[in-house]
Amino acid sequence: MASQPQIIMETFGLRDLHIEWKEALVPGTEQESKLDFGFGLDQMQDPAIFRIGLTFSDIARNSEGKEAYRISAHIMGFFRLAPGLTDEEKGSLLLGNGLAMLYSSLRGALLPISGCFPPGFRYTLPTVNLQEIVQTAQVQGGSNSSKTTPGVLPAKDEEIGRKSRDPKKSTRRPGGR
User: Fold this and answer.
1) Checking DSSP bridges between strand 161-164 and strand 168-171, what pairing results, if any?
2) How far apart are CA 112 and CA 71, in angstroms?
3) CB burial of residue 21 (10 Å; 0-12, 13-18, 19+)
4) Is 85 domain-assigned?
5) What are the CA-CA distances from residue 58 to residues 6, 32, 80, 96 (Å)?
6) Residue 1 pLDDT
7) 32 against 7, higher pLDDT
8) Nearest-angstrom CA–CA distance, 39 and 56
9) What is the C-alpha separation between 30 and 34, in angstroms, rounded?
10) Is residue 66 in some structural domain?
11) Residue 48 pLDDT more than 90?
């Protein structure tokens, strides 16, 4: 007999998506990209249901320092947890698996939309370590609400956990990021 999943994404949707293409990036040239992430978590009236919001932005500059594109998105998902989990297990599942599910869903939404922009701008969300982003946000004091499960970051519609990556140089691959 198969075991029941401990976390299920009931539904998700984009709350906001903005893509602004400004300058062409030449494949194989260096670009500077500033990534920013935010997330928040709410327990709903049903104690087994949680809402997670994830925000993402990326601002890239081409090798000449001109802004090449600006992307921002806010995706929200509702998750059901199995009964009998400890608070620590809930936090781990929601901020580990739940955020990863949302990030993957955002990746699936961005790729086909960005493919409609001028040639050479097909955006793929970068691979990130979400666990590192969560740990950094918690160290910065993100878990400070008595309304949520201990170890779980609170949020209404605002972002509580946030991490920015310093601008970094990367090389753009043809047809991808």
Assistant:
1) unpaired
2) 14
3) middle
4) yes
5) 32, 10, 30, 22
6) 58
7) 7
8) 9
9) 13
10) yes
11) yes
Question: Is 61 within 8 Å of 95 (Cβ atoms)?
Answer: no
- Asked if residue 60 lies in contact with residue 67, where contact means CB atoms within 8 angstroms, the answer is yes
pLDDT of residue 173: 34
Please tell me the total number of residues recorded for the chain in this structure: 177
Give the integer Cα–Cα distance in Å for 125 and 133.
Answer: 15
- Residue 123 CA to residue 135 CA, distance in Å, equals 27
User: pTM value?
Assistant: 0.75
Range of the domain at 87: 1-119
For 69-126, how does the pLDDT look when each residue is reduced to its tens digit (9 = 90+)? 899 999 999 999 999 999 999 999 999 999 999 999 999 998 888 888 777 677 888 8
Confidence of residue 47 (pLDDT cuts 50, 70, 90): very high
Residue 112 domain-assigned?
yes
Does residue 132 lie in a domain region? no
Half-sphere exposure of 63 (CA within 13 A, CB side): 9
Report the CATH number that the domain containing residue 51 is assigned in CATH. Answer: 3.10.420.10
How many domains would you assign to the chain? Answer: 1
Which tokens sit at 172?
């753009």
Cβ-proximal residues to 101 (8 Å cutoff; 6+ apart), any chain: 9, 12, 77, 79
- Dmax (CA) for the chain in angstroms is 59
